[in-house]
Amino acid sequence: MSGVTVGLVVTMPVGPMSLLCIQRALVFGALAGFTTGLGAATVLAIYTACAVLGLGPAIISALVYSKAIVPAVSACLLLWFSARILGRTVSLAGPTADGHSAISSYCSAVACALFNPLTPVLLAAVLPTVALPEPRAASTMVAAVFAASVTWWLVVSGSVAALRSSLSVTVLNLINKASGLVLGALGILMAAECF
């Protein structure tokens, strides 16, 4: 299995990062959506590098050891995103009408992706099918995973932002509220895992 395939298999499933990318592309425009995806791709590249360098078992055991901490942090982040989204009204005045910056999108996406338990689990399932005979192959794998993930987020954010201009403010607000509710529900499910 190639690095591109690994990157797409881990990136494409709809989860918290997909919802966040889509919501930000709809509300703030393509740049905010893409930098959100770029944050997720960065974390995926970090996890992939750790896995191909043989640190995968250590990461998995650390996640198992901190079984209550990771879902708790993930739940807090998802609930925080949900509250912010639900408290916001969409305006078509401009893609950054809220002063939402690309750096803010990137950094918050990195935090969310780091504590998304789905990413290391998907990687743990996919990476054993990949043979890495030499260090150069490992770096090629990480670069391919990152490139595939970035390409996917570029397509998603660009497509959603293009759709944005054809939707009314009312529809955008409904989609925004729905994504906030779904992220909140995911946060509650994560919180339930802590008990």
Automatic annotation (TrEMBL):
It comes from the Bacteria. Keywords: Cell membrane, Membrane, Transmembrane, Transmembrane helix. InterPro entries: LeuE-type. The chain crosses the membrane at residues 26-55, 62-83, 103-127, 139-162, 174-192. Its main location: membrane. It is found in: Cell membrane. It is a multi-pass membrane protein. This is LysE family transporter. The lineage of its organism: Bacteria, Pseudomonadati, Pseudomonadota, Alphaproteobacteria, Hyphomicrobiales.
